[in-house]
Write a structure and sequence with these properties.
This protein is α/β, with parallel strands linked by helices. The chain has eight helices and nine strands.
Length: 234
């Protein structure tokens, strides 16, 4: 098990709770989709896992991970290549192989012409590509990815999905928060649906279909049904 989440309650303080009774796991070689309406608590769940939410009561077991945030985080005054060199300086890895992979990813995401430019001048999509490159350069056991498709063009999304598949095949686990339910339905092994800060349902698509009484329903169809009547917890 690469990630075990058991949140009794969490929030910005013990008087301002936003999550209650969230429990799920991510196993090796598995992609778990964290889904829910806007304001459901997806980002707060991720913040709890990362240890940056002010108040969390519960237990977390987290493997070595890389995090791709919804909003790219860049160091002002460092070029794209200097971000990569900084990551290298913090990593215990083979420098030659690390830099070879860095150049491969930079080429794959078509950032070769801007490696010595400052990312604060990049578009949102270019900054997101940089976050992806840095995350996958680390080669951890676990990836925590928050809305990765925002700002990416279709070709970049396809490349990202292929990298995710490659990492799964190597045994990595992935927790991915996304609103792109059509894409999630195709690539995720299991789903964790939360709404109003509560766990509504978790399982495979077939299990979620059974729970929502939609035997042939899409993930979006099930999502609509389950978030309309989210007083029940599975």
């Amino acid at each position: 098990m690469l990630l075990s989440v058991d949140i009794n309650e969490a929030g910005y303080s013990n008087e301002h709770l936003v999550l209650k009774d969230i429990k799920f796991t991510v196993q090796s070689g598995e992609l778990v989709g964290l889904i829910g309406p806007n304001g459901a608590g997806k980002s707060s769940t991720i913040k709890s896992i990362l240890g940056v939410l002010n108040y969390v009561k519960g237990n977390m077991e987290v493997s070595d991970y890389s995090y791709i945030p919804e909003r790219p985080i860049v160091y002002e005054g460092l070029t794209l290549w200097e971000h990569i060199e900084f990551l290298l300086s913090m990593s215990e890895t083979n420098e030659k192989l690390f830099l070879e992979k860095a150049n491969e990813l930079i080429h794959l995401f078509q950032l070769s012409d801007v490696i010595h430019h400052f990312p604060e001048s990049f578009s949102k999509g270019m900054q997101q590509k940089m976050m992806i490159i840095l995350a996958f350069l680390k080669e951890p056991n676990l990836y925590i990815i928050d809305e990765p498709f925002m700002g990416l063009d279709p070709k970049a999304i396809k490349k990202l999905l292929q990298i995710i598949q490659n990492e799964k095949e190597k045994g990595a686990g992935i927790l991915m928060s996304t609103h792109a339910l059509d894409t999630a339905e195709k690539i995720c092994d299991r789903f964790v649906l939360i709404s109003n800060g509560k766990l509504i349902v978790q399982g495979t698509l077939d299990e979620i279909r059974e729970y929502s009484s939609l035997n042939d329903g899409s993930l979006l169809d099930c999502f609509d049904i389950l978030t309309e009547c989210d007083d029940n917890v599975w």
